């Protein structure tokens, strides 16, 4: 059985943007402010560092807040995370599902209709949630392409929902823009929380806009 | 039960040094020349690329030639590799053993007495083989420190053997220098084979020197 997962406000961590605060400190504050799910992402960390970071984040999370690990299936398994999130360059979803078994969540980044179609063609239960984006171009992921815009995101989210997948939007979402994003089950943020002077207040503002 | 593993001449792949040839082509030639074990290493590849590379290398290997994957435990499991090799920055050996179970090989890089002592203090059966090095400073891993020299390697190899671990030496080993390396169960090479105009001939020369 899959762990509980509320995608309403999904935080993706960024170690550099969180500094000089630690990632666990930012996560703790963000959850207090209303973050409902957390993905540990650090593309520059060694596997060992990522494992230690994931354990440290897990230690500050309530059981009701789902913890995902970006890319590193081995780290997710070892750290007892609730799920894994993979991009198009990471291990393919069917292979990840084979490794993680039926009791963990799997998220997949999709940036266009073709990538979503591949996700929808997988056996039911392979992927649980698709990340759709970028909504707007974003400085934290400059290689992610031009923005889909809220209309493009809503169209992909409707396709995902029709195929039984939940969806979260990602890319350039701020408290000001959050209300513009519709059709998805939740929004993902990175810099809007990790770079905020007060991550708890930033999370509250984002929740207030949904 | 662990797979068969002959460490006599252990090739660690390097995608850039192999170019314009493919890594599987270099591996195939090197095995024909006498390589007895292969580790797929590519620190710049995405997880998906590393998975595909590992499958491609596996497809050209005889069952008697053990296949290791560097660092990526998830890739090793998915690709059905015989083992995993981890460095000091990768997932800790006890955790890797928990993930791979008893039927795969685990190698660990050790560069000094302290790192070897940690490996020897692990429960028996955690680590199978330690990589000892660098023997000499090497351009393919400039961060690996100054060379231990053949004497330093032999001393560490004796400690490893006394503790029940097999050992391979790595770092700057060429056909000319291979006979200077003693006390270990095998030698690892990267550039001596991957950068050679004729990888099969290079492997034969290295075997001839052991």
Descriptive overview:
Chains A, B: It comes from Geodermatophilus maliterrae. Chains A, B: InterPro entries: Aldolase_TIM, ThiamineP_synth_sf, ThiamineP_synth_TenI, TMP_synthase. Chains A, B: Condenses 4-methyl-5-(beta-hydroxyethyl)thiazole monophosphate (THZ-P) and 2-methyl-4-amino-5-hydroxymethyl pyrimidine pyrophosphate (HMP-PP) to form thiamine monophosphate (TMP). Chains A, B: Its cofactor is Mg(2+). Chains A, B: Pathway: Cofactor biosynthesis; thiamine diphosphate biosynthesis; thiamine phosphate from 4-amino-2-methyl-5-diphosphomethylpyrimidine and 4-methyl-5-(2-phosphoethyl)-thiazole: step 1/1. The structure is a homodimer of 210-residue chains. Chain A is of the alpha/beta class and 210 residues long. Chain A has one domain: TIM Barrel (Alpha-Beta Barrel). Chain A is 38% helix and 17% strand. Chain A is built from nine helices and eight strands. In chain A, strands 1-2-3-4-5-6-7-8 form an eight-stranded parallel β-barrel, surrounded by seven helices. In chain A, α2 packs parallel to α3 and α3 crosses α4. Chain A is globular and about 40 Å long. The first copy, chain A, starts with 8 loop residues before the first strand and ends with a helix. The mean pLDDT of chain A is 96. The interface between A and B is medium-sized, with 22 and 22 residues.
């Amino acid at each position: 059985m899959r762990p509980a997962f509320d995608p309403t406000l999904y935080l993706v961590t960024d170690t550099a943007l969180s500094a000089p605060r630690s990632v666990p400190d930012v996560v703790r504050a963000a959850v207090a402010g209303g973050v409902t799910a957390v993905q540990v992402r650090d593309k520059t960390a060694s596997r060992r560092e990522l494992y230690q970071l994931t354990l440290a984040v897990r230690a500050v999370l309530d059981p009701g807040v789902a913890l995902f690990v970006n890319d590193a299936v081995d780290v997710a398994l070892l750290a007892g995370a609730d799920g894994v999130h993979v991009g198009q360059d990471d291990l393919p979803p069917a292979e990840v599902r084979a490794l993680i078994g039926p009791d963990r969540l799997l998220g997949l980044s999709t940036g266009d209709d073709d990538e979503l179609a591949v996700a929808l063609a997988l056996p039911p239960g392979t992927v649980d949630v698709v990340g759709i984006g970028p909504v707007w171009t974003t400085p934290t992921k400059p290689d992610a392409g031009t923005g889909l815009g809220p209309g493009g995101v809503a169209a992909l989210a409707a396709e995902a929902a029709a195929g039984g997948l939940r969806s979260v939007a990602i890319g350039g979402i701020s408290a000001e823009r959050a209300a513009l994003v519709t059709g998805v089950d939740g929004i993902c943020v990175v810099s809007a929380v990790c770079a905020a002077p007060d991550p708890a207040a930033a999370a509250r503002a984002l929740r207030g806009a949904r």
